[in-house]
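Continuing from the previous page of notes. For each protein in this section, the sequence appears first, followed by its structure tokens. Read the first protein now.
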Amino acid sequence: MVGGSVSMALGEYVSVSSQRDSQEALIDKERQELREDPDGELVELAGLYEKQGLSPATARQVALELTEHDALAAHLAAELNLDELEVANPWHAALASAASFAVGAVLPLLAILLLPADIRIPLTFLAVLVALAITGAISANVGGSSARRAMTRLILGGALAMAFTYFVGTVLGTTGIV
């Protein structure tokens, strides 16, 4: 459980750090474009609003007013769908991933620790599927989506991953079955 939590946290940290680097590079590029060619950027911003259905005059007026208020924020929102203040945080992602993994591992860990050896593997497999079903239901509830779809996706994906892992362990002679 600890190893999995650390592994998930490190993977999430690396992934979100890369995402953050990309976001910051885009923000720096936009900042530079605004410094070097503010008139061209104003025309570009107005063009983006025209593409969204505003008349050329209204689009230019909106672009002017938003540029006067906060040019960088206006361009980031319209061009890149970014907010400079909401750049991805790798530490938050890492901690959330570690905690999620630890909570999700409790049921399978208890099955491994508490069940007799002769039924440990199949019931741990079942415990993992139950934990995945619970995770799917919770995530669907939080996200307002279909619980059945989320649970099915997690159960099937988890079952396939465990079956593949078991197969590889069998081929390598390390299934953990004594």
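Done with the first. The second protein uses the same format. Note its length before scrolling.
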Amino acid sequence: MKEVKEYLLDAFQGESQANRKYLAFAQKAEAQGLTQIAKIFKAAAEAETIHALNHLKVMGGIRDTVENLKEAIDGETYEFNQMYPEMIEAAKKSGDKEALRTFHFANEVEKVHAELFKKALKYAESGNDAPQATIHVCPVCGYTVEGEVPDKCPVCGTKGSSFKEIA
């Protein structure tokens, strides 16, 4: 039998994946004009987020912001140094161009995320918030930018005018 912490981690991972999956299902339903079904998916996704956050809290996975930023930097760095390069190689070897594309996009954007977190960490360690700036995300690859949006995404080439502002 597993330890309770292992079950909490399994539950956190399952609920987190369900959230993302249900949001993708909601987008598809909306694209098909099924707005009420999309709302049902969105409501379930929100509930799954609540479950995941509750599990993470009980696991002790939410600490102070400085520690959370350090963990985020470690996670992003692992992804672009180890995880995605292996996945990119596998996609190249198999000839799966769609997988290669999505792995490449994620790999490049994880580098940006790590830098944003490092910048934020410097402020948090001094007891300050980062300076206020708009933040936008590319809807195709997830490229994230503080301040002015580029004319086109440097990772995937999407028009900057389609970037989503994060409130």
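What the second structure shows: DSSP finds four helices and three strands in the chain. The helical segments are 4-31, 35-59, 65-94, 97-125. We return to this in next week's lecture.
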